[in-house]
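Readers of this paper often ask what the protein records in our data store actually look like. Below, we set out a record of this kind in full and without editing:
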Amino acid sequence: MIQGRESRGRVVAPGRDRLRAPQSPQTGGSVVDRRNILFCMALFLLAAAATCPVLEMGVNDDWSYAHIAREFAATGHLAYNGWPVMPLVPQIVWAAVFIRLFGFSFLIVRLSTVVLGALCIPVLYCLGRESGLVPPFAAFATLLTALSPLTMPEAVTFMSDVPAFFLFALCFYGGVKCWKAAGAKDCARWAGLILVAGVLSGLDRQIYWLGPLLFLPAVAWVQRRRKSAMMWLAAAWLAAISAAAYSVRWFQAQPHALIEPSLNAWKRMGLRRLAGPSLSLAATMAATLALVLLPLLAGYVAPALKAASRKAALLTAVGALAGGFAASHLLHLDAPWMGNVLTAYGICPGNLLGTWREVLGPTVRDLLTMAVFLSCASSGLTLWNRRGAAGAQPWQDPSIPALVLGLVFSAAWLPILIYHSADAQPFDRYLMSFLPLFAIPLLRHYQARIGKSVSRVSWAMLALFALYGVAATHDAFARARAVLTAAQTLELRGIPRTEITAGFEYDGWTQLEAGGYVNHWDIANPPGAYRPPTCTGPPAVRLWFITFAPAIRARYVVAASRLPELDDAPAAPVDYTTWLPPGRRQVFTLMIPGGGYVQCR
C-alpha cells in the first residue's frame, strides 16, 4: 500500500539565491498519496480506539481544560480556573462545538482531540512529500509522529499538545510552500496560512508564536528579490507580532489566569545560576529526542557500519555501546530521560500515592540507552562520510526549506525552554513538534544517499514503539478507571467527594467543583485570590496537589499500594488488567487512622 516513485520537480530559477529549493510537484494528490494518507489515518484511529480512552475523569492536566470548555460551551465566556498557563483559545472553542452537539463528557472533549490528531496526518504527509520524500518515506515520517509513544498518550486526552501541534504543523507547511512560491500571489496565499495557523497555535500554547514570527522573516530573505512578495510577508509579520502582543496582554488580564513564573526568573536567580544546568538539560533533551526518533535512527546503523572501514566500524560500535553502558550503569542516566509521558513506570504515573511497579525494567532501559548511543553514532558517521556525495548543489535539495525552518525554530525554542526550566520542570511531550522537524531531513538524506526504501529495521522498530505506546496508554486509562471506581464506591456510601483524595486528576476536579478555582500562588488577578494554606494531617500521605485544593478535607485515600501510615478502609481493593507486565494490578482504599484528616486550608 505504501509505495511510489520519487518525483523529480523542476528547479525554479532563483537568480543568485542559493537557498531556493526546487519547485515540487503537486503533493498528496496522486492515487498512491491519497491511499497512503487514508491508510495512515486508519492506523491512527485504530490505535486511538485500542487505548480505550473511556474515562469520566481527567488525565494529567486536562481536567482543568475540560472544565473551561464546559463553561465556555454553556456561557460563551472563557473562565480560567487557576491552573492553565496557556490561553487554550482554539482548543476550547473547538471542543465547545463537540459539547454543544453531543453534550459534555470527558470522552467527548477527548474525541475532539482525536479528530485533530487524524487531521494532522495529511498535513504531515504532504509536508514530507513537499520536502522530496517518496510516498513510502513520507508515510514513515507521518507514522513516526502520529504513532509515537510520545504522541499517542496526548492524542487521546484533552491536553493542549496535539491541538497546538496540529496548528503548528499547518504553519510549518505554509512556511515550506511560501519558501518555494514562484509568484507574489502564491507567496501571499501561503503567508496567509503561516499567519492564521501561527496565530491560532500561539493562542493555544504561547511557544508556537515562534512559528510565524520566525518563518516569515526566513521566507522573506529567500523572496527578497520580489518586492510585492516582501510587502505581503512584512504585513503578515506585523499582524502576527501585533496579535501575539495583544493576546499576551489579554491573557494576563483574565481572572484566575496564571502568569508564567519563568518570565521573572532572572530577577530572583540571576543569569549565572540560570546558565549552570543549561548544558545538562540540553543533553537530556537531545537524548530524549533521539529516543523517540530511534525507529528512524536505527535504520542508519547497518549502512554506516557497512560503509565504514573495519576499524572505524569496530570503534564506532564498541565506543557507542560502551558509552551507553557507562551512562546507564555508572552515571545512572538510562532511558527514558525527561519523563512525564515516557517513564520507567509507564505513561504519566506519579499522580497517586503509593508505590509503583516498573514497566520498563533495568535490562530494557539498558538496551534502549545503548541503542540510542549506537544509532546516534552511526547516524553521525554516515552524515560525515557522505557530506559531499550528493552533487555540487546541496542547497537545491527540496528538503532544504524544512531543514532551515526547523533549525531556525529550534535555535529559538531551545534557550526559551532552558530558561523556562528555572521555575518549571521541562517535560518530554514538549518535544513532539521536533519529530517531523528532524525526521524529514534525516529521511530525505537516507532516501537520496543510502537506500531507496525505508529500512526493515526501522519499520520493525516503528511497529514496536507504536505497540508500546498503545499498550502503555491503555494501561494508564485502565489504572485511572480503577481509581475512579474506588472513589465512586466511597461516594455511593454517602461519603462526600471533598473527603476523598484519589490523585491529582480526581482532586483537581473536586477543587474546581467545590471551590471554583485552584488556589495557585501565580494567580495575579484578582488580587488576593491566592491564600497561603496551612496544612494539617500526616505529612507522609499528603499528595503534592493538596496544597492547591483547600476545598478537600480528606479522610479517605485511594492509593496505588498500602501505606504504613494508613488503615484499610471498609472497601475491597479494585482490580484492573494491564497489557504490559505484570498484567493484574490493584488500587487500594485507605483511611486516616483515628478519624484524622489531611487538609491545606
